[in-house]
Amino acid sequence: MYFIPMENKKVEKKKKQGKSLTKRITGWLHLWLGLVSGIILLAVTLSGTMFVFCDEIIDWCGGSAKYVEAPANVKRMSPEELLVQFHKQVPDRKAFYFDTYKDAGRSFRVASAIKPPKDKNVKKTEKPKKDRGPRGVFAYHYLNPYTGKVIGSTKSYEFFYVVAHIHAQLLAGKFGKTVVGIASIIFFVQLIGGLILWWPKKWNKTTRTTAFKIKSGTKWRRKNYDLHNVLGFYTLLPALFLTITGLIMAYEVLTNLTQNVFGGTSDAHAIAEKYEPQYDSQKKALSYSDFADKKFKEFPEAKQFRMSIPRNDSATVYHVVAAEFIGLKSLSNGKSMETNKYTGKEIIYPKEVQMYEVIEHMNFDLHVGYWGGIFGKIFTFIIGVICSSLPITGFIIWWGRRNKSTTKTKEVKNIHQHRTKIHYEQPV
């Protein structure tokens, strides 16, 4: 009969006592929650990371169409005239906002969506034909403000619209939003669990080096482990911050709680309607040109003006933005406001409604990295890349240990069989 030496038993006992119950439970949860949510988290974090520089990419995609040669002594066409020209040249699309610029050499930009088919027999999901203009849901078109001619277009708007909806709901509507919300909660738990697993049992020179540094000259498996362990620790606080701001947007309960805590109100839209002007068919609305001129005077530093095109004539509130730069979901050195269409003046809402807008925009800016200009975007992008890598490096760690443990089990089994054979062949 073969007996395990007492020394080996002590070593085995020490190994079993190496991890506390808390770490063993945390390790089990960290593993299985990661395996269950890994692919979803990868899609969410990667799409969010891609969205960070959407404004710069969209602006770059505009290329030379963003600029025109301003002719001498020729007045620019009004926004209304340019919109008429746009719909004549691209009849299958409907404009929903436009951008005009103070610089005489900048083109007029129109954001539009494909009109739904008029034929009732045509399914809404059917893709538009090639002769119906640019394909896709959203697009930007650039017009020469002196001639009204469309001089360029980009589908980058549509691309980032899709990216944003992958991030928020995996392109699966309410169900997808629920899945992303649950995955975000799991990621929050994973981050806390990762910190518990990362925390050394004893602090000394060796553990500090292992915990805070990626060791050089190691094999790829150890390198992968360090990337997961060390980079995961350094991104912990920013990742928690991004997760919390995302959860605030995902869950109405958290949105309302945040609003109430910081002085906003959950009934902002209902309260705002009471302060908006009533429709009056006898009154004439200001022209889009009047709005643009008025806001450029109010905000001398503004170089760009954006105006949402009202859906119908009965709308009495125009949403306008005047700023140095206006992106897809951001602006710099300017203001976004609701205005009276008859007077062009900003509608002054109660303090709690104003705070609602401030809190909502601030939470979004913190989540996407718009809080610190280009530095905030670069920082958020790096954190996003690392967060996107965590499900991958974590899976590789699990896969490597799984195969390693299988190999070790076979080796131990062979050794045991060999020892048993020797035991029976030799007399005791």
Number of strands: 7
Distance between the termini: 8 Å
Specify the biggest β-sheet.
Answer: 7 strands, antiparallel
Mean pLDDT: 87
Q: What is the helix/strand order?
A: HHHHEEEEHHHHHHHHEEEHH
* Poorly predicted segments: 127-135, 418-428
Number of helices: 14
Shape: elongated
**Global Rg:** 30 Å
Structural class given helices, strands, pairing? alpha+beta
Proportion of strand residues:
5-15%
Q: What's the arrangement of strands in the largest beta sheet?
A: 4-3-2-1-5-6-7
Please give the share of residues in helix.
55-70%
What are the SSEs and their pairings?
Elements: H1 6-16, H2 21-51, H3 54-62, H4 79-89, E1 93-101, E2 108-114, E3 138-143, E4 150-154, H5 156-169, H6 173-198, H7 205-212, H8 220-234, H9 236-250, H10 252-261, H11 268-273, H12 288-298, E5 304-308, E6 317-326, E7 331-340, H13 351-368, H14 373-425
Antiparallel strand pairs: 1-2, 1-5, 2-3, 3-4, 5-6, 6-7
Helix pairs in contact: 2-5, 2-6, 2-14, 6-8, 6-9, 8-14, 9-10, 9-13
Give keywords.
about 425 residues; alpha+beta; elongated
Describe the structure.
The structure is a single chain. The protein has 428 residues and is an alpha+beta fold. The protein has a seven-stranded antiparallel beta sheet with strand order 4-3-2-1-5-6-7, with helices on both faces. Helix content is 56%, strand content 12%. It is elongated, with a radius of gyration of 30 Å. It has helices spanning 6-16, 21-51, 54-62, 79-89, 156-169, 173-198, 205-212, 220-234, 236-250, 252-261, 268-273, 288-298, 351-368, 373-425, and strands at residues 93-101, 108-114, 138-143, 150-154, 304-308, 317-326, 331-340. Helix 6 packs across helix 8 and helix 9 (236-250) packs across helix 10 (252-261). It has 14 helices and seven strands. A hairpin with a 6-residue loop joins strand 1 (93-101) and strand 2.
